[in-house]
Amino acid sequence: MEMIASKNPTKTHLLLLLLLVFFLSLACSQPLHSEPMSTTTTTATQPTPPPPPPQSKIPHAEAGGAARLRRIVLGVLFGSLTGFLLSLAFLYAIRVAILHAKYAPAIVRGPVSFTPQISPKNLHSALPSAQPLAHGPNGKYYKLVLDNDVTVAVKRLEASRPEASPSSMPNVSKSDMRRVQRQLELLARVRHQNVMGLKAYVREADRLSLAYDFVPGGSLEDVMKRVRSLQVNLNWDARNRIAIGVAKGLRYLHFECTPRILHCSLKPSNVMLDEGFEPILADCGVSRLIASGSADPELASSLYSAPECYQSSRPEKIFSKIWLYFFKMIVMALEFLWSLGGSHKPILP
């Protein structure tokens, strides 16, 4: 060694310097006050971390409970809202019933007049002195002269009709009585030169009397009888005037009235004629006073009545066929001057 150092002292010094640097680098790589670098020692001295806790099922349970609670709350709210709405509907129905009972038109039982020319009391007192004129399937016709020299035609609906005499029929409901009263008020509002409007009525214990303007010329049926007996000459101009007047009256009743009035009993005996052979339709809407939505056997026996009037409970739906049928029957009677069911032969002018 001494020989190596003596032969090359520079290399010796360089080797010693490298060794010194190596040991210094090892010393610097270790932290101060640290244990020796050993994996086994480090693992033994550090505390073992606790194992991870097992996954709990509590979040799933909480989610199911929240959904169940939500359903319960929604059910309670929906039930409360439904009950509240039903309560409102029930209270509204009660209020409507009370208002209907309070403001429903009173049932008028005494004589009623729709014109100042007829006094209800005078009409009622003069009824026993009425002169009979004719008898129809649904009532009798009378001529009545009042105290003020006003002449009226009175039609009496007999007591066999419950609606015509509700005071003697305790089983008739008030709704039927009000229905008859509304129909009478509707007939009183009729204003047309070819339609006979209701002027007054008297509701008695056994009958209902309807007062109209008296037409001295009689009915088309009466005129046809006089023509057949050669007492009257009914030329084509007069027949044309009668047909046009009947068409105007039907148009007014079926298309211009609100609500429309169906004349389900139009025939020559219900077509009144004045001195100039101007027709006036009588018995308008009387069938509604007699039958309520059902066929009347006596009315159905009329050969002039449209079959639809008695085959359908709602003839309003087929009124276009009804009024055409009636008009054709009147035109046929005017053309041949004969009545259906009669034994006489047609007469041509």
Automatic annotation (TrEMBL):
One of its GO terms (molecular function) is protein kinase activity. Keywords: Membrane, Signal, Transmembrane, Transmembrane helix. This is Protein kinase domain-containing protein. It holds the Pfam family Pkinase. Residues 47-56 have a biased composition (Pro residues). The chain crosses the membrane at residues 72-94, 322-341. The keyword Membrane applies. Residues 1-29 form the signal peptide. Residues 35-61 are annotated as: Disordered. It comes from Oryza glaberrima.
